[in-house]
Amino acid sequence: MRTVTAAVFVSLDGVMQAPGGPEEDPTARFDYGGWVWPWFDEKGGELMDRAMGERYDLLLGRKTYEIFAAYWPQRDDDIARKFNACTKYVAAGADEPLSWVRSVRLEGDVADAVAGLKQEDGPPLLIQGSSEVVHALLARGLIDRLTLLTFPIVLGRGKRFFDEAAQPRAFSLIDSTRTASGVVVSEYRLGGEVPTGTFEDGPPSPAELERRARMSREG
Q1: Which residues are paired to 148 by β-bridges?
Q2: 2 close to 122: Cβ distance less than 8 angstroms
Q3: CA 64, 92, 101, 99 torsion-angle sign
Q4: Distance of CA 136 to CAs 25, 64, 133, 207, 208, Å?
Q5: Where residue 79 falls among pLDDT bands split at 50, 70, 90?
Q6: Is the separation of the CB atoms in 49 and 65 below 8 Å?
Q7: CB within 8 A of 107, min separation 6: which ones?
Q8: Beta strands in 53-113 (DSSP E)
Q9: What is the pLDDT of residue 40?
């Protein structure tokens, strides 16, 4: 059995679009590409490296794959060597070229394909970026762990990590730390159903009953 981890840079309001640079993903006139750079420091890089782990295969959407394939093959550092050596599973159409070594196209529905990969033996699957893949897997409850690097900014708009299709789930916090620049690095493990409860400690008042009735009428 293989696990799926999503390791993602996010703003306080959950935006994950174009963290690395202005030209990374300017779709929908997103003007804040490169928002990670002013807050990223050596400790942040170390924490990200640790969270990613030593052994994994990559799981990427088409746009993130294109960004990575144009960058990492020309690099020769620890991350580049891991990325270049591992298998890259890519959610891309049949007409999209996959030129990066050890790239494998996911056929059919991406969630079905990943569910199949999880049943195989092999290293963990690591998602980087790839918002559409993230959304498809969250909708099916297929992501086992989250590593969120949350930056102290609000971007207001852009592609977000969670969308309305995300399957309701509880997560357990494994570890959390912060960098000197204020980036919070949190690691979560998938839990079970969302627990609920109430602070109510007695029968509802007539005003509360009326409020509930009004809320029901308002839909």
Answers
A1: 8, 186
A2: yes
A3: negative
A4: 19, 15, 5, 43, 39
A5: confident
A6: no
A7: 113
A8: 57-61, 88-91, 103-105
A9: 83
CA dihedral in degrees (193, 198, 204, 207; nearest 10)? Answer: -90
Confidence band (pLDDT; 50, 70, 90) for 53? low
When the pLDDT of each residue in the chain is averaged and rounded to a whole number, the result is 93
pLDDT, residue 202, reads 92
Give yes or no for a contact between 60 and 130, defined as CB atoms under 8 angstroms apart.
yes
CB burial string 56-90: b at 16+ within 10 A, e below? bbbbbbbbbbbbbbeebeeeeeeeeebbbebbbbb
Beta-carbon contacts of 140 under 8 Å, excluding residues fewer than 6 positions away, are 111, 115, 167
The residues, ordered by sequence, that sit 6+ positions from 212 with a Cβ below 8 Å of its Cβ are 204
Which pairing describes strands 125-128 and 145-151: parallel, antiparallel, or unpaired?
A: unpaired
Distances (CA, A) of 51 to 32, 54, 121, 140, 185: 26, 9, 21, 23, 9
